[in-house]
Each structure stands twice: as structure tokens, then as C-alpha cells.
Design goal:
The chain is mainly beta. The chain has one domain: Jelly Rolls, CATH 2.60.120.10. The protein has one helix at 12-15; strands spanning 19-23, 29-30, 33-42, 45-52, 55-59, 65-79, 84-88, 92-95, 101-116. A hairpin with a 2-residue loop joins strand 3 (33-42) and strand 4.
Length: 117
């Protein structure tokens, strides 16, 4: 039996430099460019920080569940029924598996995320 290892993420890693992840494929508004850093990726769980410049895109039938906490910036998420919520620094949100709607990044957003498949 192998021991489980703790993964410590210092506070500075959330605000520090990120890797270039390129343009957001499928964007239908603006030219959003993403960057990020993965802190943990195992057993169907991925944890990291993600940043995206302004733009928007549709999500259809999300394949996983994501919990986010906005660290900086401003975004509006609109579900398939038209209900919208605007997120700013400090806000948290759960996007459940199967969710459909759209992301609109209004000001460059940086978020901490946990994705579970």
C-alpha cells in the first residue's frame, strides 16, 4: 500500500506567473487567451488556477463538475434558460455535470478551480 502525499500550494502560486494555454477554442465573442497552472491531477480530480482575457463562449452538456472561486476579474455566466450571474473576486460557483450555458469574461478573470470527472 502506498502512502498518500499532501500537496501544499503556497498562496503566492495563485497570484504568480502562469503557463500560456493559448486561445480559447470555440470563442464566439472577442479573442480570449487562457493561461494556467495545474497543482494536482489524479484519480479524476484536477486542481489549479486559470486565467482568461475578455471574450465569450458556449458550453453544452458539461462533461464534469467544476467548483470555482474567482480570485480577480469579472465574468458573467448565463445558463441555457437565460438566468445570469455575475462573478467577481471572492465569489464561488459550482458548475454541475450536464450544465449548459455560456461564459462571458468581462474583465480578465483568474480563478481557482477543482474539476471532478
Amino acid at each position: 500500500m502506498s502512502a498518500t502525499t499532501l500537496t501544499r500550494v503556497p498562496d503566492g502560486d495563485f497570484s504568480g506567473p502562469l503557463e500560456d494555454w493559448g486561445p480559447r477554442v470555440g470563442a464566439d465573442v472577442g479573442d480570449p487567451v487562457m493561461s494556467g497552472r495545474i497543482f494536482y491531477d489524479a484519480d479524476g480530480i484536477q486542481i489549479g488556477v486559470w486565467e482568461c482575457t475578455p471574450g465569450g463562449w458556449v458550453i453544452e452538456n458539461r462533461p464534469d463538475t467544476e467548483t470555482v472561486r474567482i480570485l480577480a476579474g469579472r465574468a458573467r455566466l448565463t445558463d441555457a434558460g437565460g438566468a445570469a450571474v455575475e462573478l467577481t473576486a471572492g465569489d464561488a460557483l459550482v458548475l454541475p455535470k450536464g450544465w449548459s450555458g455560456r461564459w462571458d469574461i468581462l474583465e480578465t478573470v483568474r480563478k481557482h478551480f477543482v474539476v471532478v470527472t
